């Protein structure tokens, strides 16, 4: 029994002392890498250490390499395949497999960083050369195809020849498109139709508003305020020896008081304030606002009697007339008052008659000249209490 135990121990020691031998492929790969590194003149420290390890492996593990006829499918699966990620087309990949020559340094198994980098560089050089060759071949094929198309003689088929024999008028008669009235239009056509209707309606509404506003503004348009018509009516009917007519443009005092004109006479002093409104006027003597309407339009304006009264009193204070100063509000011809015409309101044709109605002498001619000089004075320096009331 002890003999058998001693025999097993000796056998196990012998087997353990014998190094494991590599196969032929691995030994050939180590030998090829060793030759490649030895042929390199510029060796780094890591490459020299690699050469030392390769020499040791070849000396110990490649003394009697085992012969393996075939490699298992699992080993094939672990081997790297170069170019499968770059070329997806099977035909191009087959051409790449035929073109590619695996570098010696790209061995399987354990590999350091420097050898892996050099392997990748050499593979990249081969891939660039293959892509250049492939691009050149593609350009050559395209050039050949275009040359064949240009050089090819045009062939007219029987169908094309029969089309050339058709009469254009007959073709138009048989192939003219027919308009279907009951055909429903497209969605965008209907949308454009309704949109055009909406836009036309909006334009018509805006034009109507503009026309209405123009008519309304024309009815409310403020005419230039002037004393010309009243002056013509007074000068044509009054005696120039007894009556002196002073318009606003000739008197700085009248401009400051906003009075359109003054008539000086021995029978009194008459101030004229002209109003440009026309139409039917609803006059409320006790109210502050009057209402005027004409041709469907209406407007409110301040009571002119109050302002005329205040201006006449200030004029009397400025020229020193203690009495005999009367105020008249003049309207254009054709004005109608409702419910009746207020006192001191006249149109242009009635102003002269109102002035001539007073026949009792109040002032002498010397006083009239004094009043006239006061009207023609450059400025009277109206105080704050004598400012114009509007």
From TrEMBL:
It comes from the Bacteria. It holds the Pfam family NERD. InterPro entries: NERD (IPR011528). Residues 222-338 form the NERD domain. This is NERD domain-containing protein. It comes from Pseudoalteromonas luteoviolacea CPMOR-1.
């Amino acid at each position: 029994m002890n003999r058998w135990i001693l025999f097993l121990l000796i056998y196990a020691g012998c087997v353990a002392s014998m190094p494991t031998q590599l196969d032929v492929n691995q030994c050939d790969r180590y030998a090829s890498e060793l030759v490649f590194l030895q042929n390199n003149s510029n060796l780094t420290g890591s490459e020299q250490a690699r050469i030392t390890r390769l020499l040791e492996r070849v000396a110990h593990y490649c003394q009697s390499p085992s012969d393996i006829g075939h490699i298992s499918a699992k080993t094939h699966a672990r081997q790297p395949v170069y170019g499968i990620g770059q070329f997806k087309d099977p035909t191009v990949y087959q051409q790449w497999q035929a073109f590619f020559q695996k570098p010696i340094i790209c061995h399987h198994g354990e590999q350091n960083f420097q050898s892996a980098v050099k392997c990748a560089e050499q593979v990249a050089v081969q891939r660039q050369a293959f892509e250049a060759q492939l691009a050149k071949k593609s350009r050559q094929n395209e050039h050949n195809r275009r040359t064949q198309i240009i050089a090819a003689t045009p062939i007219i088929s029987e169908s094309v020849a029969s089309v050339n024999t058709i009469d254009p008028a007959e073709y138009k008669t048989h192939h003219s498109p027919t308009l279907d009235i009951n055909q429903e239009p497209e969605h965008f056509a209907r949308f454009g139709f309704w949109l055009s209707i909406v836009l036309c309606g909006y334009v018509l509404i805006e034009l109507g508003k503009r026309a209405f506003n123009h008519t309304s503004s024309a009815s409310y348009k403020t005419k230039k305020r002037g004393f010309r018509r009243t002056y013509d009516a007074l000068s044509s009917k009054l005696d120039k020896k007894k009556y002196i007519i002073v318009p606003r443009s000739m008197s700085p005092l009248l401009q400051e008081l906003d009075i359109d004109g003054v008539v000086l006479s021995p029978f009194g002093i008459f101030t004229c304030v002209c109003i440009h409104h026309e139409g039917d006027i609803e006059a409320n003597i006790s109210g502050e606002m009057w209402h005027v309407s004409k041709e469907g339009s209406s407007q409110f304006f301040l009571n002119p009697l109050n302002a005329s009264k205040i201006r006449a009193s200030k004029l009397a204070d400025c020229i020193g007339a203690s009495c005999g100063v009367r105020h008249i509000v003049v309207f254009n011809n054709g004005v109608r008052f409702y419910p009746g015409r207020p006192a001191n309101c006249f149109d242009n044709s009635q102003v002269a008659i109102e002035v001539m109605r007073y026949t009792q002498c109040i002032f002498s001619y010397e006083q009239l000249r004094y009043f006239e000089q006061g009207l023609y004075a450059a400025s009277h320096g109206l105080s704050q209490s004598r400012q114009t009331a509007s």
